[in-house]
């Protein structure tokens, strides 16, 4: 048997007619940039997240760049974030000339640990507010970028309180977290802006690249609409420098189709996650494998089902041999990437992130995965541990 990491053919087959109809309409209209499809997608996305505004952009990376820029992050600013993320989070900060400051993660959610954020900011003066006698170097902290990794929200209340206390901006990297919730609030609606990716493998995946920023603030969305269109405020007038971060009409039209199915697909993911949980228990693997934990007051969207094991690389190789599509997200924390060397971090500086990066393994999970496929994955893991005891 073969079990892919993701099965997009299976996902798209039942909605091919809907997708074709949406594409036909755009091709007939001849309007490929902007227009009704883009606006309608933005309205529907904003409604889904429960915020007044959304701006569709070219991809999740540009969503982060545009949101940070709109919130005033620029050269010389410090932005606190996690080292345990897809590199785009960090690259977006660097692209604006700002400096990423890494804080360690919480092993339960794999998101930044609020206490570590306090550690950094609570011993200095931030944004003119004096906190202690001896620090002034932290006055440049401008924003926090929590990443809701794998589809589970970070512990947001303390982060939002701290941001409020020190006038810091919060840009949620919700690239993986569409329809995840923290205390009933959807990911993306918690901070000053929330950024989504519609990369094809995401829970809401485009037929190509795509992204969006959602926000409660009209001023912020206006800025982002300007930034995504080369900073243009009206024809040929460019008060700021942005980029070409527009999302095309064909992509928005097909995303609208997929949006209609997202809640159902998310439920199917949750069912598949529950099936994995019971299979691991039935196969008596709970001493060998740490299952994903859902923290208090969270709704997980099961973008990834991530187990943690000591012999990760051996297990991964074994499962690949058995025809099972497993992945490691992400093996090298950002603070140890060669391009971040100038920041001066060394191995051991962020121990929880480093340990996690050595242990995580994403199992196949997608809407429509069947019981036999999941049983095959878990019994193969059982075979691995039986032959390694
Ligand atoms: C956590 C995280 N941040 C940012 C991004 C960037 O999104 P994109 O690939 O759409 O640019 C992704 C997805 O790839 C991601 O998983």
Number of domains: 2
Rg measurement, Å: 21 Å
CATH topology of the largest domain: Aspartate Aminotransferase, domain 2
- Assembly state: single chain
Number of strands: 14
**Large-scale geometry:** globular
| Structural class by sheet pairing and helices | alpha/beta
CATH architecture of the largest domain: 3-Layer(aba) Sandwich
Order of the strands making up the biggest sheet: 1-11-10-7-6-2-3
Could you name the CATH class of the largest domain?
Alpha Beta
Bound molecules: pyridoxal-5'-phosphate
Strand content: 5-15%
Q: Provide the low-confidence segments as ranges.
A: 124-136
> How many separate helices?
13
* CATH superfamily (homologous) name of the largest domain: Type I PLP-dependent aspartate aminotransferase-like (Major domain)
Q: How do the SSEs run, as a string of H and E?
A: HHHEHEHEHEEEHEEEEEHHHEEHHEH
Descriptive terms for the model:
single chain; 389 residues; alpha/beta; Aspartate Aminotransferase, domain 2; Aspartate Aminotransferase, domain 1; 2 domains; 7-stranded mixed sheet; 3-stranded antiparallel sheet; 13% strand; binds pyridoxal-5'-phosphate
Record the SSE blueprint.
Layout: H1 8-12, H2 16-29, H3 36-49, E1 53-57, H4 60-70, E2 78-81, H5 88-95, E3 99-102, H6 114-121, E4 125-126, E5 129-130, E6 141-145, H7 156-165, E7 169-173, E8 181-182, E9 185-186, E10 193-197, E11 211-215, H8 218-227, H9 249-259, H10 262-282, E12 298-299, E13 305-308, H11 312-321, H12 351-359, E14 360-363, H13 371-387
This protein binds pyridoxal-5'-phosphate.
Structural commentary:
It contains 13 helices and 14 strands. The relative contact order is 0.16. The protein has two domains: 252 residues, Aspartate Aminotransferase, domain 2 (3-Layer(aba) Sandwich), CATH 3.40.640.10; 126 residues, Aspartate Aminotransferase, domain 1 (Alpha-Beta Complex), CATH 3.90.1150. The chain has 389 residues and is an alpha/beta fold. The chain is 38% helix and 13% strand. The structure holds pyridoxal-5'-phosphate. Pyridoxal-5'-phosphate (PLP) binds next to helix 4 and helix 5.
């Amino acid at each position: 048997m073969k079990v892919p990491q993701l099965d997009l053919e299976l996902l798209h087959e039942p909605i091919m007619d809907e997708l074709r109809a949406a594409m036909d309409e755009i091709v007939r209209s001849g309007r490929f940039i902007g227009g009704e499809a883009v606006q309608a997608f933005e309205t529907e996305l904003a409604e889904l997240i429960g915020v007044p505004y959304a701006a569709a952009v070219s991809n999740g990376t540009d969503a982060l760049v545009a949101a940070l820029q709109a919130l005033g992050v620029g050269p010389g600013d410090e932005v606190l974030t996690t080292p345990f993320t897809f590199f785009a989070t960090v690259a977006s900060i660097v692209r604006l000339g700002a400096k990423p400051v890494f804080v360690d993660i919480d092993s339960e959610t794999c998101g930044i640990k609020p206490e570590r954020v306090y550690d950094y900011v609570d011993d200095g003066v931030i944004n003119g507010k004096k906190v202690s006698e001896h620090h002034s170097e932290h006055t440049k902290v401008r924003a926090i970028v929590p990443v809701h990794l794998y589809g589970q929200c970070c512990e947001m209340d303390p982060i939002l309180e701290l941001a409020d206390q020190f006038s810091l901006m919060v840009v949620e990297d919700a690239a993986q977290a569409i329809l995840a919730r923290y205390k009933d609030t959807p990911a993306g609606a918690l901070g000053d802006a929330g950024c989504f990716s519609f990369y094809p493998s995401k829970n809401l995946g485009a037929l190509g690249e795509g992204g969006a920023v959602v926000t409660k603030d009209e001023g912020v969305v206006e800025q982002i609409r300007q930034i995504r269109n080369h900073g243009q405020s009206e024809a040929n007038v460019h008060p700021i420098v942005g980029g070409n971060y527009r999302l095309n009409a064909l992509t928005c039209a097909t995303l609208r189709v997929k949006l209609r199915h997202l809640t159902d697909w998310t439920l199917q993911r949750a069912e598949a996650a529950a099936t994995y949980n019971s299979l691991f228990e039935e196969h008596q693997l709970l001493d060998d494998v740490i299952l994903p934990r859902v923290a208090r007051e969270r709704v997980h969207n099961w973008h990834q089902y991530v187990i943690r094991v000591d012999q990760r690389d051996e297990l991964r190789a074994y499962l690949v041999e058995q025809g099972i599509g497993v992945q490691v997200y992400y093996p090298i924390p950002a603070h140890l990437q060669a391009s971040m060397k100038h920041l001066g971090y060394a191995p051991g500086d962020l121990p929880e992130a480093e340990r996690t990066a050595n242990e995580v393994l994403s199992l196949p999970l997608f809407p429509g995965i069947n019981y036999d496929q999941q049983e095959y994955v878990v019994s193969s893991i059982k075979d691995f541990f039986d032959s390694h005891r």
